[in-house]
Amino acid sequence: MSTPTIARSRDGQGRLAAVLLSPTFAVLGVVIAFPIVAAVWDSLHRTTEELDADGLVVEAERFSGLANYTSLIGNDRFQTALWNTTFFTVTTVAIETLLGLAMALLMHRAFRGRAIFRAGVLVPWAIPTAISALLWRWIFSADGVANAVLGREILWTAGGLEAKLAIILADTWKTAPFVALLVLAGLQVIPDEVYEAARVDGAGAWQRLRSVTLPLVMPSLLVAVMFRMMDALRMFDLPQVMIGTRKPSVETLSQLAWDEAMNLRYGPAAATATVLFLYIAVAAFVFVRILGADMLSEAKDDGKAVARGRGGSSPHKQPDMLSEAKDDGKAVARGGKEGKA
Questions:
Q1: Res. 51 pLDDT band, cuts 50 70 90
Q2: Where is this region: Disordered (predicted)?
């Protein structure tokens, strides 16, 4: 085939791809790009009340530049909401990661009643957040189950440190199964030969967990942590339903933006929402760049290895993976023996 013919064929494929993808881009533009542009536009304006030619008070929208953003710097309520959002994200994601990993390891083991246990673990995640918030508000009420079990009269939903603890417990109960589900998917693709090789060479349970399970399940765990981090940063319905609005001890940035909008302060509400959007975007970018760098480089290496395998005599990569895994298990075992010696 001549060079001009190949060029015309590629141009035709490019136009066809553009036509097929155009509906997707149109939908993304309506549901993603337009709301972001509209929020940024509103954040640069401020609604004021003026007198018209007839002497009547009317609302007018004036361009205010970055005034809505600069006013957030010295706003104690915004700073408290920013701190609460960061605190809930760090604490809940850390607890849910450890608890989800333990739950996944338990669900991965073969024992009688495992199917029932798996179904029971996933029930909290399947319940809508607003419903689970009502459930936990009843548990932490003044005459609820929590005080009955502890034998004390604690006002969990009144605010303060008790309200923070109640939010952390409720969020962990609901979303730890999500982390467990993703980690369990990663555990199920680890070949049994890896554990058999490590076990034959003398690696103990702790060595297999630390040197075999955790490195191989790390990509799934990082994806789960990133999803949970982005979800926790935009936490709204759980503290809103469980504790209520305008509670400084648990108010998040999403609640603050919602409350400003409900009071017709659209400019500050849009500025708060834009700051939260940038916060989530920067956190996700840093997370992928720092913690996900190894995962992405490994994926690229795997892709190159698959490409080489397709170009060579063996079209399948599984034998190479198994042999590498066995070598890793033997290396772990040798390391353990040398450590004991």
A1: low
A2: 302-341
